[in-house]
């Protein structure tokens, strides 16, 4: 019986770890984000704090690992219990402060990168030259609304040295941004709000040039840029809420393995006596209440035409 009670006691911790492993793990990042690690520790510490309070209030006669909390004539264990709770609370506060500092530091660094790029005369000059190349291609080809405009290898070779330098500079900068995000040195949400359209349009425009440079120099060049483009575009399509049309680039590869997800969900429910569903739901509610998210109700520019904005 003691084995069963101990098993039920550790089920919440196993469930929380499984939830983070299933929902918070992101293989796109080259290392686990520090903010996610600290959040997991915070939740586990909060659960331990709550369990000790419940133990003292309702189950004082029980023991855990041969340790009891009942006071005797020779031992006053309430003091030790209060000391343990105070230590947990102190560690909780320290980890919470550290997590906030890490998040703010990454965001501050991201803002600094954005400001440096906007204030850099070299960056502005290269972007202007790349914009001229795009506008020239559009005027020459007059593409349809859903047709991609791409610079060919022949057209790239015909460019002047200044234009070629602008193309490679812009690709190198976007590659730098992608590497910074994958290494958790840049805040993805902040960078995505500023660079998503820039990265998408330039990747499409210079996609053939990237392939050409891979053949000449390195087959892995601009891999990080390509992965970030797929993450921001191909794996997260925007569907217009008005005309219900999908707006995407390229073809979606892979997808979610529904059978695998359902099997894992059922298995975890079985081993946790359906506590997995409860904790998973609670975690999602907490995330919904504590994280500010922008509306995902996307409306394309064609449907926006004719609407009056004040």
Biggest sheet: strands, sense, closure? 2 strands, antiparallel
The Rg value, from CA coordinates, equals: 27 Å
Mean pLDDT: 82
Give the SSE string. Answer: HHHHHHHHHEEHHH
Spans of at least 5 consecutive residues whose pLDDT stays below 50 are: 248-256
Tell me roughly what share of residues is in helical segments: 55-70%
Distance between the termini: 68 Å
Q: What is the quaternary state of this protein?
A: single chain
Strand order of the largest sheet: 1-2
Portion in strands: under 5%
Q: Count helical runs.
A: 12
Number of strands: 2
Structural category is mainly alpha
Shape: elongated
Description of the molecule:
There is one protein chain. The chain is mostly helical and 310 residues long. It has a domain at 120-236. Helix content is 69%, strand content 1%. It has twelve helices and two strands. It has helices at residues 2-24, 34-58, 78-119, 121-141, 153-158, 161-182, 188-205, 207-216, 223-234, 258-271, 275-290, 301-304; strands at residues 238-239, 246-247. The protein has a two-stranded antiparallel sheet with strand order 1-2. The longest helix has 42 residues, at 78-119. The radius of gyration is 27 Å and the shape is elongated. It starts with a helix and ends in a 6-residue tail after the last helix.
Question: How is the topology of this model organized?
Answer:
Blueprint: H1 2-24, H2 34-58, H3 78-119, H4 121-141, H5 153-158, H6 161-182, H7 188-205, H8 207-216, H9 223-234, E1 238-239, E2 246-247, H10 258-271, H11 275-290, H12 301-304
Antiparallel strand pairs: 1-2
Helix pairs in contact: 1-2, 1-11, 2-3, 4-6, 6-7, 6-9, 7-9
């Amino acid at each position: 019986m003691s084995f069963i009670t101990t098993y039920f006691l550790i089920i919440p911790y196993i469930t929380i770890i499984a939830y983070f492993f299933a929902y918070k793990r992101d293989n796109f990042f080259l290392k686990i984000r520090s903010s996610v690690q600290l959040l997991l520790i915070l939740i586990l510490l909060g659960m331990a704090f709550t369990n000790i309070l419940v133990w003292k209030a309702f189950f004082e006669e029980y023991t855990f690992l041969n340790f009891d909390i009942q006071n005797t004539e020779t031992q006053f264990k309430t003091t030790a219990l209060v000391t343990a709770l105070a230590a947990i609370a102190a560690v909780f506060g320290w980890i919470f402060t550290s997590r906030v500092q890490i998040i703010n530091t990454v965001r501050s660094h991201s803002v600094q990168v954005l400001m440096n790029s906007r204030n850099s005369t070299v960056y502005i000059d290269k972007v202007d030259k790349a914009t001229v190349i795009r506008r020239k291609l559009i005027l020459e080809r007059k593409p349809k609304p859903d047709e991609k405009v791409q610079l060919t290898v022949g057209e790239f070779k015909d460019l002047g040295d200044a234009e070629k330098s602008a193309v490679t500079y812009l690709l190198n900068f976007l590659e730098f941004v992608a590497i910074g995000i994958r290494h958790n040195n840049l805040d993805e949400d902040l960078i995505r709000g500023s660079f998503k359209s820039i990265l998408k349009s330039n990747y499409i425009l210079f996609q053939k040039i990237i392939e050409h440079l891979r053949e000449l120099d390195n087959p892995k060049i601009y891999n990080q840029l390509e992965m970030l483009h797929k993450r921001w575009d191909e794996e997260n399509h925007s569907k217009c809420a008005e005309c219900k049309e999908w707006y995407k680039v390229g073809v979606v590869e892979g997808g979610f393995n529904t059978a695998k997800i359902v099997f894992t969900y059922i298995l975890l429910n079985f081993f946790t006596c359906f506590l997995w569903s409860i904790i998973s739901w609670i975690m999602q509610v907490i995330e919904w209440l504590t994280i500010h998210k922008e509306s995902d109700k996307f409306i394309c520019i064609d449907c926006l035409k004719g609407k009056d904005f004040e």
